[in-house]
Amino acid sequence: MTEPGHTRPMTGPLEGIPLPDLEALPDYEEGFWQGALSHVLRIQQCAECLVFRHLPTPMCPHCHSTSYSWTAVSGQGEVYSFVVVRHPVHLAIREKNQLPYNIAVIQLEEQDGLRICTNVLNVAPEEIFIGMPVQVTFMVPAGQQEVVLPLFVPA
Ligand SMILES: [Zn+2]
Questions:
Q1: What's the CA-to-centroid distance between 51 and ligand 1, angstroms?
Q2: How many Å lie between the centroid of ligand 1 and the Cα of residue 116?
Q3: Which residue among 82, 90, 104, 111 is least crowded, i.e. fewest CB within 10 A of its CB?
Q4: CB atoms < 10 A from the CB of 153, how many?
């Protein structure tokens, strides 16, 4: 068993924690998850002022338009901020020995302030740093068939 504080990279999505129900999403979130199913990172973009926004919302916070499209972005970005979690906040985290794990906010290259909350894989917690270049990847959590998660790896 890995002791708390032991360093090891995440190599995949967390297992056994709640995931989005793709059948119950509001219309304005579907494009993001449908894109992920095809391994494409699609971000909601206002059809009027062309500003990207994430998390998805029904109305543009800049111009109040309710028209939008789902634009494929490069998946390139950098770590804006992160935390390393060393205490289990869900039973599955402890039962499946998934500590430590990280939660990272990634600044995408398309627009200043366009950020996505995710995990960074394949790098030890002590080696993650703010400004670290990263690239999107897509993985299916163990035991899941229908949800594909956008995660990031060092670029
Ligand atoms: Zn707008």
A1: 6
A2: 19
A3: 90
A4: 16
